[in-house]
Amino acid sequence: MILNLGLFLAGLVLAWLTLRDVFDTVVVPGGSRASLQVTRRIGRVLLTGYKFIRRKQGISSTFAPLVLVSSFVIWMSFLALAFGLMGYAARSHFSPPIQSLGDAVYEAGSALLTVGLSPHYPRGGGRWIILAGGFCGLAVMTMAVTYLLEVQSSITRRDIGIIKLNTSAGDPPSALTLLERFAAIHNEQALAADLDEGRNWCATVRQSHSSHPSLIYFRSTSTGAGWPAALGAVLDLALIAEHLIDDERLYGPAVLLREEGARMAKELALMIRLTPKDHHTDEAELEQLANRLATSGYRLRPNPNFLAIAKQRSEHMSCVDAIAEHLGRPTAILIRQG
């Protein structure tokens, strides 16, 4: 009697911990705060392996999907074991009685997957265990499908912005390349709208990736250098429009974009526990950038403070570089030579 009660309580606790971990990871924004933290633990293990095997290529595009699929497989396995323990504790409530823990796990797994393949017919308390197992399995599978659709939607919104940026800014993207391209096709009037669009992109990505940190590791093959480089180029564009280009229509949108982008970089770096990297922006490089802008036809602000610009850029690029290195991807470049 005591053994059966212990098995039932152990199964109940394991089921509770597993369901809470699923709920915190999939539903609650910000990642799992439960004790199991299955997704985070799998991610750490796989990340170490990927970085060791594919050090030069960076993290594979299969990494994040593998983490998610593995998480759901482990959650379902834990639930099968949990309800198996409860079923074995109530083995006399099945006809014929369950003979082993393995049979009980099979019985629970059959209920979780809603296939109903079992030679044991539940009676009394066994009915409620099987019913609860089937409900939990259906709930987890429903959340899995919903979560995967949400992931795909968030990645699509992020990647559309990156692809549009790379078309004008190159790959890896450079804000200077984008500005020179706009000047060459007489599209300077679109800069204010692009600054607003960049701010919306930063806010959208920050919200989705902060709510579900696994999105940080999703990489699409069509986006080239990836989202850290895009973020760095957007921040460079904001700094240039704020401090160098003499156009008051750009100043307000540039300041708002810089603040939103810098907040995104810091928040996501903190989310995956990264320490900002030391980054030094050379004043001579900024002077060269200003000369190329003037050559392209932009009117520049008189006597720009290149030291202050370099300091500000080094601050936000420290987080961007840390994320890019962590993901094994290139960062943004200030000036594309040649």
Jot down its keywords.
338 residues, mainly alpha, two-stranded antiparallel sheet, 11 helices, 2 strands, elongated
Walk me through what this model shows:
Helix 3 (63-89) crosses helix 4 (101-112), helix 6 (175-184) packs parallel to helix 10 and helix 9 (248-271) runs parallel beside helix 11. With 338 residues, the chain is an all-alpha fold. Strands 1-2 form a two-stranded antiparallel sheet. It is elongated. It is built from 11 helices and 2 strands.
Quick description:
By secondary structure, the protein is mainly α. It is built from 11 helices and 2 strands, in the order αααβαβααααααα.
Mean pLDDT: 87
Major sheet details: 2 strands, antiparallel
- Give the end-to-end Cα distance, rounded to a whole number of Å: 80 Å
- Report low-confidence residues grouped into runs of 5 or more: none
Please count the helical segments. Answer: 11
Helix content: 55-70%
**β content, as a range?**
under 5%
- Total strand count, please? 2
Shape: elongated
Q: Walk across the major sheet and give the strand order.
A: 1-2
* Structural classification: mainly alpha
Oligomer classification: single chain
Order of helices and strands: HHHEHEHHHHHHH
Radius of gyration over all CA atoms, rounded: 27 Å
